[in-house]
Amino acid sequence: MYATLLVLACGLSVSLANNHCSSADAAIVIEQWQQVSSPDAAAQTKLTGGRAVFKKLFEMAPGAKALFTRVNVDNFESPEFNGHIMRVMGGLDVLVNYLEDTATLDSLLAHLASQHAVRAGVTKGAFELMAKVLMGGLPKVVENFNPDAWANCIVPILNGMSAGLSE
User: Fold this and answer.
1) What's the rounded Cα separation, in Å, for the pair 50 and 117?
2) Given Cys at both, which of 26, 113, 158, 164 links 127, Cβ 3.0 to 4.6 Å?
3) 104 found inside a domain
4) Which cysteine residues pair off into disulfide bonds (predicted)?
């Protein structure tokens, strides 16, 4: 019986460990993220970067635009869409900065997953596409971009945000 419990406990800890990136990867991502999201980075810089992310997302999946009508996606300059972009960028900033605090990160991801679960049409595939957009765009703005560390950290974040969604 104890052997069975030990095997189950080890399996659970391995399973949970796969939900987060390593401490070394988290440290790299947090440090590199500061290049694009430090307090010194102007809000306009974050807004411009966010617009580029959504522009690329909509180029890759034009139908995704329909999911953002409530934030006036047809006008990238509108206060509603700019507000949405800043919420997304701010949320990503918070998540990246909590990579080393897995309990808080898990709580944040559960909250974001519940918010996305009530949005009709939002799927896991949309988060996979967002990972591709980020992994394609970040090397253009982050010096010495470490694709392995970023992939190891972004994928668990996006998986956490899309938990419970359909494919």
Assistant:
1) 22
2) 158
3) yes
4) 21-153
